[in-house]
Amino acid sequence: MHKELLSAALAAALTLSLAGCGSGEGADDSFDGYTVGICEQMEHVSLSEATRGFKDALVEAFGEDGVRFSEGNALGEQNSCATIIDGFIAEGVDLILANATWPLQAAASATSEIPVLGTSVTDYATALDLGEFDGVIGTNVSGTSDLVPLEDQAALIKELFPEAGTVGLLYCSGEPNSVYQVETVRAELEGMGYACEAYAFTDANDLGAVAQTACDGSDLIYIPTDNTVAANTETVANVVIPAGVPVVGGDPGICSGCGVATITCDYYELGRLTGELAAEILRGETDVSALPVQYLEPLKVYNAENCAALGVEIPEGYTPLG
């Protein structure tokens, strides 16, 4: 086994071994608060911020002694999401937070009884293959979405790069919501007169090579709220910045790592909103099966350093990333 694969396997094994160990580790059997399972798809700043906001909201609602967390990170391995979720079910958690699409899919498949809230999920209909969707899933699953109007993403590109000819669309083919966003934004951009070319990669191992190919054929690159890119922004930055090709990313993590600007949501606030909904469900104040998926107001943000490096002028109405 290659050293990189061995390291990844060991890291995944360690993460899974910790999946059942949360802030309540070591508590005695008399604990009568709520136990909440949290599964993150992989490690990157946007998902971490959503988890932080979620936990803060629940601790504020129930106190440090009233809630404990079992946490697992799948480190980008889809099968590990199911393993972590199965551990939560065996533990008898009171609620599951599925942070991103793969954990949501795993949780929805694994239990119809434990309330499941998703967050950092772009489109629930795509993630759960719902077909007709009016905003209420109608099962034990609901949550919050990081979706901003995709036509606004296309309009942002038009505002910042009106003279560009070709837009490269860089995304992971294994993430259904990335595929959905790329297809939607592509239609919008082509309606504006841009030529678009899709550049799909399968995992982080071929991201750098595909990003280079996208640079070679594009005036600028659009990346949706893609978790694999968000966890590997340095790989993309090492290609696009030297090549002088600007990136419009779907979330603030991508923008801060390799992009110039985006329209997005505040992931910490998204997590807090999810935590507030979780508190209502745990108290019995809200029925998860009747709870519509919730959204935040979008924000326009930019990366001042990358804009300066690439000579991109940002108009008024954008907030610099901290």
Automatic annotation (TrEMBL):
It comes from the Bacteria. Keywords: Signal. This is ABC transporter substrate-binding protein. It holds the Pfam family ABC_sub_bind. CDD domains: PBP1_ABC_unchar_transporter. The keyword Transferase does not apply. Residues 1-19 form the signal peptide. The keyword Transmembrane does not apply. It comes from Candidatus Scatomorpha merdipullorum.
